[in-house]
Automatic annotation (TrEMBL):
This is Similar to glucose-6-phosphate/phosphate translocator. It is a multi-pass membrane protein. The keyword Lyase does not apply. Residues 8-26 have a biased composition (Polar residues). Residues 33-315 form the Sugar phosphate transporter domain. The chain crosses the membrane at residues 58-83, 95-113, 119-139, 146-165, 171-193, 205-224, 244-265, 272-294, 300-318. Residues 1-28 are annotated as: Disordered. It comes from Chondrus crispus (Carrageen Irish moss). Its main location: membrane. InterPro entries: EmrE-like (IPR037185), Sugar_P_trans_dom (IPR004853), TPT_transporter (IPR050186).
Length: 332
């Protein structure tokens, strides 16, 4: 559901308009803060917007995902047309695996949101950090330092506690949530590695990913959404209005921002750090769930959100300390 630009520390966002970013150095704190804020507002916005679209009667998660990829593709072409970035020829075979993972990530994310409550959806979504750590260790032999595990465990416990009162389990919804964790983990890992191996900035890479993902999802859309003309629940019986069509297109615009911001955050930090940022978004979305969707406010939720934020702060301090140590060792 979104895309991003800039993967180089010695370039500004403006320089991305004329040349590809690289990964020669560490991004500045200001750059990291900017892309994290961009991801925060676009990601939290699209979750609430998608939920409103579903509640308005458009119960077709896979089709909505296809619309998001099309909107992302059109948006990127317009950005390229107006000189925001310069397209680059990439290895389609390498981009395709990321496109398939991205298709699965968005499809199962939308289906999980459609079939589950916002609370359970967020809890399972942010268990992705566990999936990333396990996959990186088993498949890529990259191990997270032990000192970070305590902070991550604190965050995960906080997310689980926050959603305890909202665990409205159902088999299909849980399966979608687990599939989302698997696809999202690979997607996030490959987002960072492919930007480096292909030497492409997020917009250049996403210009390949979005249309490939749209093509990949076409065969499976009828498997998840009802396209039978004889069915009363068919998509053909959905009555478009100015309001609901505008809402759907608005989620498409947010999808462009989300897809770009995912690539930006992971390109400038890491998949694990991206998930840590996501835990802060979880607390915010629970507040939105309380205010907009009528979820009851309970002390357990407050404790869980507080624990989650403590974990985020703890992890952030460890990352800042690790960066300072790396800078000292590099200058010595």
């Amino acid at each position: 559901m979104a895309v991003k630009a800039v993967a180089n520390s010695d370039q500004t966002v403006a320089s991305d308009r004329t040349e590809s970013s690289t990964t020669r150095g560490e991004p500045s704190t200001r750059e990291v803060a900017t892309v994290i804020a961009f991801n925060f507002f676009s990601s939290t916005g699209i979750v609430s917007a998608n939920k409103l679209v579903y509640e308005a009667g458009f119960h077709f998660g896979a089709t909505l995902t296809f619309i998001h990829f099309i909107c992302t593709t059109i948006g990127l072409l317009l950005l390229a047309r107006f000189g925001v970035f310069t397209p680059k020829r990439l290895d389609v075979r390498k981009a395709l695996k990321l496109a398939i993972a991205g298709m699965g990530f968005v499809v199962f994310s939308n289906l999980s949101l459609q079939r589950n409550s916002v609370g359970f959806y967020q809890v399972m979504k942010h268990m992705t950090v566990v999936g990333v750590i396990i996959i990186e260790a088993i498949v890529f032999r990259r191990f997270l330092p032990w000192r970070f595990l305590g902070a991550l465990a604190t965050m995960c416990c906080g997310v689980i506690i926050t959603g305890m009162t909202d665990f409205k389990l159902n088999t299909l919804g849980t399966m979608f949530a687990l599939a989302n964790i698997l696809c999202t983990s690979f997607y996030q890992i490959w987002c960072g590695s492919l930007q480096k191996s292909l030497e492409a900035n997020p917009l250049q890479l996403q210009l390949y990913i979005a249309p490939l993902s749209a093509l990949s999802i076409i065969p499976i859309v009828p498997m998840f959404d009802d396209y039978r003309s004889s069915s009363p629940e068919s998509i053909f019986n959905f009555v478009p209005t100015v309001n609901n069509v505008s809402a759907i297109l608005f989620t498409g615009a947010l999808a462009l921002c989300v897809n770009v911001s995912i690539f930006l955050v992971i390109g400038k930090t890491s998949a694990v750090t991206y998930n840590v940022v996501g835990n802060g978004k979880t607390a915010f979305l629970f507040v939105v769930d309380f205010l907009v969707f009528g979820r009851p406010f309970e002390p357990t939720n407050v404790f869980g959100m507080t624990l989650t934020l403590c974990g985020v702060i703890w992890y952030t301090q460890l990352k800042l300390k690790a960066r300072a140590e790396a800078e000292r060792s590099g200058s010595s």
